[in-house]
Task: structure prediction
Amino acid sequence: MTDVFDSDFARNPWPTLERLRIEGGVHRVRTPDGPPAWLVTRYRDVRAGLLDERLSTRVRYAQGDDYRGFSVPPPLDAMLSAAPADHARLRGLVTSELSPRRLAEWTDRAPRLVDSLLHEDDSGETVDLVERLAVPLPAAVLGELLGLDDHTAERLRGWANSTLLPSAAPPRARDTLATMLAIIADATARAPRSDTALGRWVGAHRACGSPTGAELTGLLFYLLFVWYEVLADLIAGSVLTLLGSPGLRQTWYALGDKRSAVDELLRHLSPQVLAGPRFATTDLVIGDTTIAAGQTVLLCLASANHDPEIFPRPAVPDLARDRADQLALGYGMHACLGNALVHTLTAAALEHVLTRWPDAALAVDEREIAWRSGFRHRGPLTLPVRL
Ligand code: HEM
Result:
């Protein structure tokens, strides 16, 4: 068994992942919490794993002492551990709100939201774009998207600040499930009856019991908290990548549609390092390795996205690469439902910073920027930029 998730991995996972891909692809590793798991690192195996029905997200298939993931008590894990038919129904509920038609509205709204966070007065100043942009933007969007009332939206902003900013005082709110549950309870109790996603879900719950109360809580837990941090990580990491390279900036300006450029930033940064843990429902083979029923498999999205067999010169960000087959947003039946939103928001944030402040520059040496975490997700902790 190998220990790979050390502080070097958190700072820079790429050399370790390259070595693991070369040395067989599938490895028995110790997770930072202690329990072991299988780490899958090659693109073809990761992609096949995401499609493999014998690898379940349902913790009920776990056996033995393997890693079981961030343990959230029911009802919070409703989305991940739902039986297939319930999972499909819940995905349907989210998709009806995050449909391409509804998300198209965000092409206009996202730039306005970004504009409200960073404005003319900031010109010439040094600002931390994690604090001023990457952390508040998801709260503003989720608030509007779901139709949170002002009080709940304010609480969500408070949670984000107290969790994601370096100034956050321990104990971290992330660890305080009670805070998150209270915000969810607030959100549903105060849900406006008007034409909002939350209003419609709460209405359906009251009218026909679908989603059930537990499912509604689980859904909101997912949408409000689980994806928050990776979105902030992607926005900050993308700004950092482009500010650090005049060549990438020129390519950005030259590109009409920014979708493939965001795909490349997703590939290059891979803010969510691992897919959620999968549990083998039966003995199975990945590469040359036999996984026993009940063992845990960690599919490494970041490693797959840097596999040179699939992406030549993977360490070099190339905005013209045009590869939608990157796996940063997952793939298959659990593929990210925020995909279109993630692209729209990231493009809006970059476009705003790069066009309003074409001379914006990092205020510190790039090597001084500290990165958050490293096991499940990664992103810059601060981003001081002179606008
Ligand atoms: C940069 C930002 C994001 C990244 C990197 C990301 C990544 C992912 C990944 C890798 C998965 C698959 C997990 C797995 O297979 O184990 C996933 C699922 C999901 N994502 Fe995202 N996500 C992001 C933002 C969002 C946003 C903004 C939303 C919604 C507002 C969202 C909603 C979801 C949902 C509901 C699922 C679960 C789908 C299911 O279980 O069927 N994500 N995401």
Summary: The longest strand covers residues 26-30.
